[in-house]
C-alpha cells in the first residue's frame, strides 16, 4: 500500500464535536461530571480476563515487522493476547500466523524466539508441521491411526493476517473488518513517516523485549496523547537539552479515530514550507512526491507524532530529538512499541526501530542511538514513565483506592473551534495538552468491556 492510496474522499478535519462526554454509568467515588475510570480496571484479575475475551480476541494485533522474517522458513514467536503464536514465512513466501501449540496434546511446538525452519516437530510424540501450519508427519500413523486418519484436519490453527507498510498484524476474529478498514483514517498519518521511501520500511535492529510491572493500559494511555506529563515527569530531559526541536515553540493537535485509535502531533509553529527535519535533504523531493499535498502540510516541520493503534500498539516519531554523537547525521526516529498484558500487573513489551528501508546505515544507526537513549528499555523517558506506572500498580490494588478513587481524565473538556494547519481526517482537536485522546481510548475500551 502506498501513501497515494489514502482515501481522497475522506471527511475533512473536524474540531472536537465528537469528544466523549463524561461516563454515563455512575462511577463510585467520581466527582459528578467527571470522566472517571474505576481503578479496578488497572489491577483486577477478572477485568484482565475480560479484556482478553472482549478486546484482544477480536482486535487486529500487531506482531512483527516483515523484515524480521525476510527469507522462506524464517520465523519469530510472539504473543497475541494470551496466545503463543508463530509468525513464519512459508516456502512460498507467504506470511503465516499460527497458534504455537501442537494439535495432538497441545505442547508448545516451537520453543525458540527466532529462527529458520521448514518444519516444526513436536517434542512430545513427534508430530511434524510444515511452516505453513499443515500437519505433514505423524510417527507410525498408518500402523497406529489407520488409513483413514485425516492429517488435513489437524493443521495448526491459523489467524487472519495482513501487512501495512511492513507491519504484520493478525486477528483470530473472522468477523473483524479488514486491516485497512480497521486502521481507517489513522493510515493517512502513519503513511507520513512509513510511506516516505519507495523501498518501503525496515526494522534494522529487530525487536527488543522487556517487562514492566504495571498495567498495559497505562502505556496506551500515555502514548495515546499525554502531553501533560512531559515537562514534569521528563523535566530532567528538557533541562539537559536532550529534547532538540521538541523544546522549541510548537503548535499541536490531538486526533481521534474510529476503533479507538488516537494520535497527537506537533510541529514547529509557523512552518510554511515543505521541510522534513531528520530526513536527508536529497530525499525531500521523494518524500514530497510520495505523500499527498495534505500529508505534506501535516508532516512538514513535524517535531513529534505519537499515538496508538487500538488496543496495544504505540508509535512515536521524533525527527531530531538530539542525543546522538557529534558527527552523526540528523535522523528521524520511528519506534513502534507493543505492550502485551500477561496479567493485570505485568506487561510484556517489545519495541522496534522502523526506518525507510534504503536509507544509509549511518542514518539508521543515528536513529537507533536516539531510540535507545530516549525510548529504549533503560532510556530516560522509560525510566521516568515506568516508575510512575509501577507506583500506580502499587496503590491500585488497595481496596479503598480501587473502589473509591477513580482515575480522572477531565483535562481540556471544552475545545474552542480550531482550524488545523493541515486538511486531514479524524476528529482534530486544537490543543496538544489535553486528555481528549485518553477519553477516546477509555471510552472505546469501556464500550467493549461492558458490551
Ligand atoms: S503433543 Fe505434540 S505430538 Fe503429542
Ligand atoms: Fe512519558
Describe this structure in words.
- The structure is a single chain.
- This protein is α+β, with helices and mostly antiparallel strands and 451 residues long.
- The chain has 2 domains: 102 residues, Rieske [2Fe-2S] iron-sulphur domain (Rieske Iron-sulfur Protein), CATH 2.102.10.10; 266 residues, Naphthalene 1,2-dioxygenase Alpha Subunit, Chain A, domain 1, CATH 3.90.380.10.
- The strands form 6 sheets. An 8-stranded antiparallel β-sheet has the order 13-19-18-17-16-15-14-22, with helices on both faces. Strands 5-4-3-6 form a 4-stranded antiparallel β-sheet, with no helix packed on it.
- A hairpin with a 2-residue loop joins strand 3 and strand 4.
- 46% of the residues are buried.
- The N terminus is likely disordered.
- The chain binds FE2/S2 (inorganic) cluster and fe (ii) ion.
- Fe (ii) ion (FE2) binds next to helix 11.
In short:
This protein is an alpha+beta fold and 451 residues long. It is 26% helix and 24% strand.
Keywords:
451 residues; alpha+beta; Rieske Iron-sulfur Protein; Naphthalene 1,2-dioxygenase Alpha Subunit, Chain A, domain 1; 2 domains; 4-stranded antiparallel β-sheet; 13 helices; disordered N terminus; binds FE2/S2 (inorganic) cluster; binds fe (ii) ion
Topology:
Elements: E1 36-37, H1 45-56, E2 61-65, E3 74-80, E4 83-89, E5 95-99, E6 114-116, E7 119-121, E8 128-130, E9 135-137, H2 141-145, E10 160-164, E11 167-171, H3 179-183, H4 186-194, E12 201-202, E13 207-212, H5 216-225, H6 230-233, H7 235-239, E14 250-256, E15 262-268, H8 284-290, H9 293-299, E16 302-309, E17 313-318, E18 333-343, E19 346-353, E20 355-356, H10 361-375, H11 380-396, H12 399-404, E21 407-408, E22 427-429, H13 436-450
Antiparallel strand pairs: 1-21, 2-11, 3-4, 3-6, 4-5, 7-8, 8-9, 10-11, 12-20, 13-19, 14-15, 14-22, 15-16, 16-17, 17-18, 18-19
Helix pairs in contact: 4-9, 5-13
The structure holds FE2/S2 (inorganic) cluster and fe (ii) ion (FE2).
Amino acid at each position: 500500500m502506498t501513501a497515494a492510496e489514502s482515501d481522497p474522499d475522506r471527511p475533512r478535519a473536524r474540531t472536537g464535536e465528537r469528544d466523549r462526554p463524561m461516563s454515563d454509568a455512575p462511577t463510585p467515588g467520581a466527582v459528578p461530571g467527571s470522566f472517571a475510570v474505576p481503578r479496578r480496571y488497572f489491577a483486577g484479575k477478572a477485568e484482565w480476563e475480560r479484556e482478553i475475551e472482549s478486546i484482544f480476541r477480536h482486535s487486529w494485533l500487531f506482531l512483527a515487522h516483515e523484515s524480521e522474517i525476510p527469507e522462506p522458513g524464517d520465523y519469530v514467536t510472539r504473543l497475541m493476547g494470551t496466545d503463543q503464536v508463530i509468525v513464519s514465512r512459508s516456502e512460498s513466501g507467504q506470511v503465516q500466523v499460527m497458534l504455537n501449540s501442537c494439535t495432538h496434546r497441545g505442547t508448545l511446538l516451537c520453543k525458540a524466539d527466532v529462527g529458520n525452519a521448514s518444519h516444526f516437530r513436536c517434542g512430545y510424540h513427534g508430530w511434524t508441521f510444515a511452516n505453513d501450519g499443515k500437519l505433514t508427519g505423524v510417527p507410525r500413523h498408518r500402523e497406529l491411526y489407520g488409513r483413514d486418519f485425516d492429517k488435513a484436519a489437524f493443521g495448526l490453527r491459523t489467524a487472519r493476517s495482513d501487512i501495512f507498510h511492513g507491519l504484520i498484524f493478525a486477528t483470530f476474529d473472522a468477523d473483524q473488518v479488514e486491516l485497512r478498514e480497521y486502521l481507517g483514517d489513522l493510515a493517512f498519518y502513519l503513511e507520513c513517516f512509513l510511506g516516505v521511501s519507495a523501498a518501503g520500511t525496515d526494522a534494522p535492529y529487530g525487536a527488543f523485549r522487556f517487562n514492566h510491572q504495571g498495567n498495559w493500559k497505562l502505556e496506551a494511555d500515555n502514548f495515546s496523547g499525554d502531553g501533560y506529563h512531559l515537562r514534569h515527569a521528563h523535566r530532567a530531559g528538557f533541562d539537559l537539552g536532550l529534547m532538540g526541536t521538541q523544546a522549541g515553540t510548537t503548535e499541536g493537535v490531538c486526533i481521534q479515530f474510529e476503533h479507538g485509535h488516537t494520535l497527537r502531533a506537533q510541529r514547529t509553529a509557523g512552518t510554511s514550507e515543505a521541510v522534513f527535519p531528520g530526513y536527508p535533504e536529497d530525499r525531500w523531493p521523494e518524500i514530497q512526491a510520495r505523500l499527498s499535498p495534505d500529508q505534506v502540510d501535516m508532516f512538514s516541520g513535524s517535531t513529534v507524532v505519537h499515538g496508538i493503534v487500538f488496543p496495544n500498539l504505540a508509535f512515536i516519531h521524533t525527527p531530531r530529538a538530539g542525543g546522538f554523537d557529534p558527527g552523526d547525521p540528523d535522523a528521524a526516529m520511528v519506534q513502534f512499541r507493543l505492550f502485551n498484558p500477561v496479567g493485570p500487573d505485568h506487561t510484556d513489551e517489545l519495541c522496534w526501530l522502523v526506518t525507510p528501508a534504503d536509507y544509509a546505515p549511518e542514518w539508521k544507526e543515528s536513529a537507533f542511538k536516539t531510540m535507545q537513549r530516549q525510548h529504549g528499555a533503560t532510556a530516560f523517558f522509560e525510566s521516568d514513565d515506568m516508575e510512575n506506572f509501577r507506583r500506580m500498580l502499587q496503590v491500585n490494588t488497595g481496596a479503598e483506592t480501587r473502589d473509591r478513587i477513580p482515575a480522572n481524565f477531565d483535562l481540556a473538556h471544552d475545545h474552542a473551534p480550531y482550524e488545523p494547519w493541515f486538511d486531514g481526517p479524524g476528529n482534530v482537536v486544537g490543543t496538544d495538552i489535553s486528555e481528549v485522546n485518553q477519553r477516546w481510548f477509555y471510552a472505546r475500551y469501556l464500550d467493549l468491556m461492558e458490551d
